[in-house]
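Good day; I would like, with your permission, to put a structural problem before you. What I wish to show you is a protein chain and, alongside it, a tokenised description of its three-dimensional fold. Here, with my thanks, is the record as I have it:
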Amino acid sequence: MASALPAVLEPDRLAAIDLGSNSFHMVIARVVGGEPVMLDRLREQIQLAAGLEANGHLREDFAARALGCLQRFGERLRGFPPQQVRAVGTSTLRRISDGRAFLRRAEAALGHHIEVIPGTEEARLIYLGVAHTLADDGESRLVVDIGGGSTECILGRRFEAYERHSLHMGCVEWSKRYFASGELSRAAFERATTAARLELRAVERRLRTLGWQQAVGSSGTIRAVGDIAREAQLSARGIDLGAVREIERRMIEGAHVERLDLPGLKEERASVLPGGLAILRALFEALEMEVLSVSQGALRDGVIYDLLGRIRHEDVRERTIKALQERGRVDLEQAARVERSALELLAQVVAAWDLEGEPSALFLAWAARVHEIGLEISWSHNHRHAAYLVENSDMPGFSREDQLLLAAILRNSRRTARRSSFSGLSREDARIALRLSVLLRLALVLHRSRSSEAPPHLRLGVGKKGLLLEFPPGWLASRALLRADLEEEAHAVEPLGIELRWG
């Protein structure tokens, strides 16, 4: 079988960028003995969530602050190949009304592609980053992370997260909503904590029922509270509910964020600590945690380990695709036949159609493997069902843009193709999805009989008028059904501006 995963030499450096709702982080690691060793960490507090208006518009002064930071990060990344850099955006970037326009500016400033990841993928990467800082003892773990715009609650064991939840509450948003004036009253803390408890109602019973042996917290709010608890000697180990309540009492006593005098509290953290502390108290009360240890691992560390796994071909996305195949009861032999032919066709047009690089081969291979998952729902329009499942499923390792691109390929793999079905993608992703969908369609036609007999070697050329598929002399003459299928395909891809010919 043709491989979509060519051998790649292990790099000497990797970079991960976390575009969070409160701060932007970048970590650069050197690979030593197969493991990443951190060389550099950069952080700038942007408070992007504070610049997001009710209608989803991002204020220009906050956008300018973010772009300036990304330009500085980009200077540090000069000379890094694209495959050694992964940049991810989280809660606030998921909610910007004109997110694509901002992403274009952000990518130009950084000089690298930026993925906007769903909350469940954010949770998986957080868990991965935390897990690599802990002993591999096989204990079940609860990991909680209070970010600027969302809070993640994850259950896992070793390096695998099996329960992932992302809740719409974060320290920047909660502080903006309940402590906008900076005043710290008991009533404000009660309102903020009650609101957080309401958000937790959807997950608290399930998490408590599944249980855990160790609770670990990560990122800014929890680290800040841990620092205060340690410096003020409020807790013998980690953080407990008593320490949280005492910090809250002292904050109320201070009356205003500008007058806070808590040991270990950094000045830049003060304005967003009230909202974060209210969420943390709600977590303790709802999940009935006894003690929360503090980890130095976080999302960006998880991105580094995940990126290293992709380079080593230990890609979680491969496991996700395999899981989809299993749930959809896919005929694996047929999927393998379609994948092999699709990749062979891609190899012949990769330069002419500007599809060089690993991503095109990966997405075409994945589409071939899961193109029949919609059959589990119904035969009629199974390609639409497959696209719907891919677009709306929880797919570890995939960004939102990845899922939309893969769904677009599947949606156009049968029946009449429509240009409008690519409208939800960026211009570049739409171009790639359109061309990959045509290649998948041809592979499906070649294997419609589901025969184990391999088709002969075919030549596929790109000309001014479209595609020319050349069969061995005389081979097509005895295959009337295939000729009829090709005629249907020629009509079906006309709306895409593709003229299909054969001979």
Remarks:
- The radius of gyration is 26 Å.
- The chain has three domains: 13-117+302-309, 134-295, 315-456.
- The longest helix spans residues 427-446.
- Residues 347 and 361 are 9 Å apart (CA to CA).
